[in-house]
Amino acid sequence: MVSSPSAFTRVLHWIIAATAVGALASGYGLTQPDAFALSLLRLHIALGMTAGLLTALRVVIWLKDGPPPPVFSIRSRVQVRFSRWVHGLLRLAPLVLLASGIGMVALSGSMPAIVESTLPGLSAFEPLPPRRLHHAAALGLVLLVGLHVLAAGWHTLHQARPGAN
Asked: According to the model, what pLDDT value does residue 57 have?
């Protein structure tokens, strides 16, 4: 390991990770036939808003303080470049999801129905342009999280071997 991020940064990372995974799971649940439940949509919105807003905070911190120090040492330029792209996209995807989610709710005018528990389903969102972006960004985030987890596992195993520096 190279260095250790601050306790605040680590906590923020894991809160974003947990809320983003929860938003992805609840969003996936909402796409299943006959699975609509207003409580699931509200949970999805709350988790997505939390993940998106905390990601925005993380980006502000990154812009103010610079990127966090790497946790693992990487010598390969390809790995460094790949790591930068993945981490950059991991910061961008929740912001795209936040913007497209807000866009769908705003364009559909469904917020009063969500608040008043009268929204009958997701049909109001179907024809809206942000919907495709929202689903594409969600798929992208799933893939990025998978790559991130695999890379962290690989680095942990690789640097744990005797003689690996």
From this structure: 95
- Closest by CA to 52, choosing from 5, 15, 27, 107, is 15
Contact between residue 105 and residue 111 where contact means Cβ atoms under 8 Å apart = yes
Closest CA to 147 of 87, 97, 96: 87
**Above 90 in pLDDT, residue 98?**
yes
What pLDDT digit, counting tens, does each position of 65-87 carry? 887 777 777 778 888 888 889 98
Tokens 């990025």 correspond to 144
The answer for residues whose C-beta is within 8 angstroms of residue 18's C-beta and 6 or more apart is: none
**Residue 103: CB partners within 8 Å, gap ≥ 6?**
128, 129, 130
For domain 7-160, the CATH architecture is: Up-down Bundle (1.20)
pTM for the full model? Answer: 0.86
Residues 108 and 42: beta-carbon distance below 8 Å? no
Hey, where are the domains in the chain? 7-160
